Amino acid sequence: MTTAREIMHPGVQCVDEDANLVEAARMMRDLDVGSLPICGKDDRLHGIITDRDIVIRAVAGGLDLAATKVGEFGGHVHWVDASDSVAQVLRTMEDNQIRRVPVIDEHRLVGMVSEADLARHLPEHELALFVERVYA
């Protein structure tokens, strides 16, 4: 059985919930990613912020990017356990129509599974079904 830990991208970096949106955008640029997990002072996952959140909700909404905290964008976050099967990872992503999911081990963020990770590890027909379900 292949697990989330085996297909995830390890070494994911969090943005602090007290960072502002400009800092988050720069961090995304520097890391060449489209989303960042949001972590609190307790070093636990509090949410995810995407480049789309910044553009659609903040820029288009006329928010002051330097004054708006990342933590305001946290909300509910779906995640998988590091020992979950790839089938469970797929179910979580498909059921919630999300393109990336944090991987947790003993209450700590240890990685992220993205579409690119799935593309590297799934047979072509399973990947096609995933894309159809997430983008439907």
UniProtKB/TrEMBL annotation:
Keywords: CBS domain. Transmembrane segments: none annotated. CDD domains: CBS_pair_HRP1_like. InterPro entries: CBS_dom, CBS_dom_sf, Diverse_CBS-Domain. It comes from the Bacteria. Residues 8-65, 67-129 form the CBS domain. PANTHER family: CBS DOMAIN-CONTAINING PROTEIN, CBS DOMAIN-CONTAINING PROTEIN CBSX3, MITOCHONDRIAL. This is CBS domain-containing protein. It comes from Lentzea sokolovensis.
